[in-house]
Design a protein that fits this description.
By secondary structure, the chain is of the alpha+beta class. Helices cover 52% and strands 18% of the residues. It has a three-stranded antiparallel β-sheet with strand order 2-1-3. The longest helix is centred in the last third of the chain and has 17 residues. It starts with a helix and ends with a strand.
């Protein structure tokens, strides 16, 4: 997927109350229950229906790495949807979201001020409205670049301008060369 999209998904996954199935057979059985049949699972994973049936019966236990990655991704995508939705709702209304990043940040500011880009390591709690914007954009299928723009706006508001108490003349924040990015609810 993408750096920002995967980061948001990982943050929401941490809200799970039970671990997702680990073995290939258990994951396959879960998907068969969710999609109501082996044919749908076979189409989703791009394998034959007979192969799905063999995983369900534990006749095959170890999938090749490509299939294992697709299987795990599809299970995680569907695991505990109501709990994930509640976690998103809480972050978007009351809790906010924490962004931990190491990236190059710079500013577009009036002449005579310092706007030099530099690598910064930031851990910043973003207010709920930015969490809501990030999750809404992700749901709408926004690109990684758009999610990055929203995060840059949030960092400008919260970190650089401290909610309007300083640096009011900043026009734009450049948020590039991301080395590390992690979200937490």
């Amino acid at each position: 997927m993408s750096l920002f999209g995967d980061g948001l998904e990982a943050a929401v996954q941490k809200a799970s109350t039970r671990p997702a199935p680990k073995s290939a057979g258990a994951q396959m059985r879960y998907l068969v229950r969710q999609l109501k049949g082996t044919k749908a699972v076979a189409q989703l994973l791009r394998i034959s229906q007979r192969t799905v049936e063999r995983y369900v019966k534990d006749q095959i236990k170890k999938p090749h790495p490509d299939l294992a990655a697709r299987l795990e991704r599809e299970v995680r995508k569907r695991w505990q949807p109501q709990i994930r939705a509640k976690a998103r709702q809480k972050a978007a209304t009351t809790g906010g979201i924490v962004i931990d990043t190491r990236a190059r940040m710079g500013y577009t500011a009036p002449i005579g001020s310092t706007d030099q880009d530099r690598i910064r390591h930031l851990t910043v709690a973003l207010p709920p409205q930015y969490a809501a914007r990030l999750f809404d954009a992700q749901e709408a299928g926004a690109t990684d670049a758009r999610l990055q723009e929203i995060a840059a706006e949030a960092l400008k508001e919260v970190y650089s301008q401290d909610g309007g108490r300083r640096a009011g003349s900043l026009e734009e924040v450049r948020f590039t060369d991301i080395e590390h990015l992690e979200f937490d609810l």
